[in-house]
Amino acid sequence: SKVVHLYKCVLLVELTVSCENLMDKDIGSKSDPLCVLLMNSSDSQWFEVARTEKVQNCLNPKFAKKVSIDYYFEIVQKLKFGIYDIDNKTVDLNDDDFLGELECTLGQVKCFLYSHPLPLQQTHTCIIAEEIKDNRVVNFEVQARKLDNKDFFGKSDPYLEFYKQTETGWQLAHRTEVVKNNLNPCWRPFRIPLQSLCGGDMEKPIKVECYDYDNDGSHDLIGAFETTMTHLQQASHVSPVFSPVCLRYQTVICNSVLHKKTVFSNYGLKCIMHVVKEYTFLDYIMGGCQINFTVAIDFTGSNGDPKSPQSLHYISPQGVNEYLSAIWSVGNVIQDYDSDKMFPAFGFGAQIPPTWQVSHEFPLNFNPSNPFCAGVEGVVQAYRACLPQVKLYGPTNFSPIINHVACFAKQALQQTTASQYFVLLIITDGVITDMDETRNAIVNASRLPMSVIIVGVGGADFSAMEFLDGDDGRLRSQTGEAALRDIVQFVPFRQFQNAPREALSKSVLAEIPGQLVEFLNTMKLAPPNSNPASAMTVSS
């Protein structure tokens, strides 16, 4: 019998990016930089891996969002860090100002702090790589009282920054959201990996800074203090009440509670925190968690007549179109995480036989009691067989299929272990018709073991899809209810049209492991087998 190991021994590396002296491309304000990381594939094509957040009005940004990638010692992994000034909400970077880029290898970054001038003017970018060895995280609940008012009109708009001490100085580990016009803010609960905050050393100093946010980037320091995780943890357990802290001046630590030593009026900070060990994506997969993959395909009339070469549903003489390419790219990766490889596949927006009523949730095999297809090949065959049997129509409604998958995810949540997670792939060509209902469906699904991937085919306006992808803010329902987490990943297919197939799948699936881990750990769900073997094998 032959034994095949399902994964290689690799290191997980976390990258932190900062820049100095960026070009100012805006008139009347400063550039709004964002960093995009690209990697080089085996056939020398660049594909996008991740993006940081956008930093408003700042020429010396410290990006809070970290990028985690696998490091292979035996492979030269080429990286490209592109810096852009973002002035719109589109995902396409071609309409944003280019500020510079840096090419290097992961080996260069892994071995030392990598600092290099960008090609344009005297700009420098700094990349710090750190191996992730500690899977503990810190769950924070923080609120403040009687903060100093830094605004002439209205009240301060406070946010917090947490810093890790390194050999070269303080490194940003986390930045909270801004609480508008409030001197007694209560920030949303957040989590910081212990590795990112103190390198796993509970006695290592950390720094917390509180700022008043200003739109022009000239944020006012309200105050700061230094402490250790040990002291924070003790204070949280012994006296989880408002503790006056010295913001901007030296902090005196007494009986595990932070006390103010200054003539300023009392600042209060209440911090409740718990250090917990989190299961990793590999822990869940090796421990028996199944990823259930569902496909939904857009059959609306805007795709064009499938018999016409101009149609997005037209199957070329080579047997491909954008829909098929997306199915193959995503399905080939995700099917390895599903033991039975039976995938439900649906269509929406078409008139279907025999009544020719419009349906927004019909099985591609026209069998409602058994919509499953055998592997990616089965999905492709069902799509090909379905296409000539339906009439493309409309409108483009997403909510029925999202709610359909959510029903199964809700049933899975009733189990006591992390046995199942659901991924819905929606492939579409255009604007959503039921936006309000779709927003409601996504907000509801954010509380379930479920993620939604949207691949946009064709050249339509996809701004609505980018709105659903909550990278720049938390999606809200019609009634104002916020999503518990970001579960939507949108990718325009044509951005990868000339790239290798694995480039699309890597970009589309990049956020799934993090979304799965975040949800299952938040719900305190362990893998069905919480003590998996150190290596999983398949014998044949």
TrEMBL record:
Gene: CPNE3
InterPro entries to which the protein is assigned, alphabetical: C2_dom, C2_domain_sf, C2B_Copine, Copine, Copine_C, VWF_A, vWFA_dom_sf
Gene Ontology biological-process annotations: cellular response to calcium ion; ERBB2 signaling pathway
CC annotations in GO: plasma membrane
Protein family according to the UniProt entry: Belongs to the copine family.
Domain C2, chain residue ranges per copy: 1-120, 121-242
Keyword Transmembrane helix: no
Alphabetical keyword list: Repeat
Record PANTHER family: COPINE, COPINE-3
MF GO annotations: calcium-dependent phospholipid binding; receptor tyrosine kinase binding
Protein name: C2 domain-containing protein
